[in-house]
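Re: weekly structure request thread

Next one in the queue (106 aa):
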Amino acid sequence: MKDVIGAMRARVGLQSPTRVEDELGGASIAWVNEGEAWAQVEVDGVSQAAAFDAAPSTASYRLIINRHDAVRAGWRVLWRARVLRVTGVRDDGGAHMALLCEEEIL
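Done, posted below.
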């Protein structure tokens, strides 16, 4: 990853999943805010698939952020009005890391 500091113009929120149990013994996922980061956001592509009489499209994004050691696949990123699911993290040990994300749109 080259010098991307000037390209990091988007402010994003980082959230991690936490399992929350209810009174009946079930559980659900709650999202915990883990902070914010400046990011360079790149659209990687869009795909579409037919499922159950709907045609959802999936947009793929690549976000470059400053190193944040806790970020893992399964987290999510809040960017503008979008919620992006982190599907992969590319970390080469440098000052920045890449988050591979998807957004499903119905």
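The mean pLDDT is 88. The domain at 5-105 is CATH 2.40.10.270 (Thrombin, subunit H).
Next request, please.
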